[in-house]
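Ops channel
N.P.: pipeline sanity check, posting one input/output pair.
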């Protein structure tokens, strides 16, 4: 029976089965380690929700698991899931919030509870919005808006669109965002929340659009209306947001004194009131206060306010636009102070973070266009797919048969050509090493015509110290890096990098990799015991942290793999004994 299985079932299928069994066993073991005690198992959903709210921010995992295990498909449980999802949203625990909102969506979809489903999608969009995951926010918002229009829920439609226009504004879709904002203003009287907190929230979000379009008079008009309502109902969050908006407007109008007045007011509210979701208000306050001080040439104060946000960032916060802009602002402050190394450091941080942000931003823009045109495209796609379906099947079948035949013929030829090519490269390598052993290559001492702001004597001293470090094989250390080497030669990273680039004609990483590969080529040829090491051990011996990294650089330098080089050396050694 076993031999039959081996003959008839491919190895990868057996591996998949074994992996699946292992995974199931492992998962079962993990589940067993988090057994829910009876003291919690018999608590109601209401009791568990209250326990989570009471205990948080202490560890609530076991309570969350117990609550999620109550997966009855009834609306009451869905409401509890939504309630705790909203709680975690307010506490900025977004991963936990999404976990419960997803369960809410599953149940309300099954029960066709459209209003509750729309509410869950809307909040899910807000979660993704705060996380800076705009594409996911769009998916959730559009789902919520479709449901709101279907059910005629104008309140939910307005609340959801207030989040949608923020995403559109981020993505520079200002015409669309402005159109939605105007529609919201015209229809706010139809909602149930006139002169309420949600009324103020609408004003704060449409003001983001007006700021982006530089319609500052409108911003101030709606900010003042929102401030009036906020004061009448003692809505501190509304006051906070609208004071920040006015501070932003006066900053853009170059009235930095008035801008700082409103930003200081908002900072006071943030520090004295119990405000949920403090991240964005805090970052915006610090950014615009720092920007005001920068414009007033008070660079130290600007840096201080920027660091109030930067120093407390979580890794997940670094992909958010105001945070990225703070890094650029700090770089500009140091540049104005003529502290160029610090300026370069913060500029590099800005470039790194902005590159990642732009990738995600581009994806979101594509998503927006897709949403706006999908009704037209879907009809065209259906028509095109029907027209090409039959011909595609024929082409694929014939193509597969022809490709298989060609592959069988070409693979044999490629294999032998590759072997001959590798053999030629090996011979060239051995000859080159022999030449180096017989006569050391004369290193060029000609001074480059490229300009360096370093005197010739200092350059000469640094180059001599580099030669000494090469002789000491410093490049073999795993912690060998630009800053460390700069310390060794009593210079700084910027100058050393320029010197290596100018006189070694390569960047620092290429310089170190070349030294390591030249060393390992020579040592493998001369040291039989070293050839018996594994590739991983050889990699570690010469300073690489992984065998993959070593193999990649070895192949880039020589054109062959280290294993092939060792194999040929062994064969060569056998022929001479």
């Amino acid at each position: 029976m076993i031999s039959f299985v081996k003959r008839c079932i491919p190895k990868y299928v057996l591996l998949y089965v074994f992996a699946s069994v292992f995974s199931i066993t492992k998962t079962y073991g993990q589940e067993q380690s988090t057994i829910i005690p009876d003291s919690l198992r018999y608590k109601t959903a209401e009791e568990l929700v209250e326990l989570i709210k009471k205990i948080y921010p202490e560890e609530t995992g076991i309570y969350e698991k117990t609550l999620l295990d109550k997966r009855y498909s009834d609306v009451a449980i869905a409401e509890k899931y939504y309630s705790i999802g909203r709680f975690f949203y307010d506490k900025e625990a977004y991963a936990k919030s999404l976990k419960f909102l997803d369960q809410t969506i599953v149940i309300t979809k099954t029960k066709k509870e459209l209003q509750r489903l729309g509410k869950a999608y809307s909040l899910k969009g807000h979660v993704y919005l705060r996380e800076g995951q705009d594409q996911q926010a769009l998916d959730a918002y559009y789902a919520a808006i479709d449901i709101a229009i279907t059910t005629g829920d104008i309140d939910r439609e307005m609340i959801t669109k207030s989040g949608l226009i923020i995403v559109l504004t981020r993505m520079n879709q200002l015409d669309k965002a402005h159109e939605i904002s105007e529609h919201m203003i015209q229809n706010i009287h139809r909602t149930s929340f006139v002169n309420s907190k949600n009324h103020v929230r609408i004003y704060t979000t449409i003001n983001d659009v007006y700021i982006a379009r530089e319609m500052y008079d409108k911003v101030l008009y709606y900010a003042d209306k929102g401030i009036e309502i906020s004061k009448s109902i003692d809505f501190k969050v509304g006051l906070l947001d609208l004071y920040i908006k006015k501070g932003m407007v006066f900053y853009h109008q170059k009235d930095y004194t008035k801008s700082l007045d409103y930003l200081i007011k908002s900072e006071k509210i943030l520090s004295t009131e119990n405000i949920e979701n403090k991240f964005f208000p805090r970052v915006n306050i610090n950014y615009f206060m720092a920007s005001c001080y920068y414009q007033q040439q008070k660079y130290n104060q600007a840096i201080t306010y920027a660091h109030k946000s930067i120093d407390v960032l979580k890794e997940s916060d670094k992909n958010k636009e105001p945070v990225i802009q703070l890094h650029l602002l700090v770089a500009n402050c140091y540049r104005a102070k003529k502290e160029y190394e610090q300026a370069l450091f913060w500029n590099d941080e800005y470039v790194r973070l902005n590159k990642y942000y732009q990738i995600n931003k581009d994806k979101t823009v594509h998503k927006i266009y897709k949403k706006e045109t999908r009704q037209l495209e879907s009809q065209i796609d259906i028509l095109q797919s029907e027209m090409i379906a039959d011909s595609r099947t024929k082409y694929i079948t014939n193509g597969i048969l022809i490709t298989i035949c060609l592959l069988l013929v070409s693979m044999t030829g490629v294999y032998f050509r590759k072997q001959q090519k590798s053999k030629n490269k090996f011979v060239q390598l051995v000859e080159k090493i022999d030449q180096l052993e017989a006569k050391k290559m004369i290193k060029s001492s000609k001074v480059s015509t490229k300009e360096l702001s370093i005197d010739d004597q200092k350059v000469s001293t640094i180059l001599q110290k580099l030669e000494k470090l090469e002789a000491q094989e410093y490049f073999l250390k795993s912690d060998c890096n630009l800053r460390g080497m700069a310390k060794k030669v009593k210079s700084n990273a910027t100058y050393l990098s320029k010197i290596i680039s100018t006189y070694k004609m390569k960047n620092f990483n290429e310089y170190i990799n070349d030294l390591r590969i030249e060393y390992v080529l020579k040592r493998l040829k001369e040291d039989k015991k070293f050839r018996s090491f594994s590739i991983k051990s050889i990699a570690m011996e010469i300073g690489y942290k992984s065998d993959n990294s070593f193999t990649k650089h070895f192949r880039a330098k020589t054109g062959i793999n280290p294993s092939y080089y060792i194999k040929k050396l062994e064969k060569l050694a056998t022929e001479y004994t």
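N.P.: looks fine end to end. Residues 1-33, 362-388, 437-454 have pLDDT under 50 and may be disordered.
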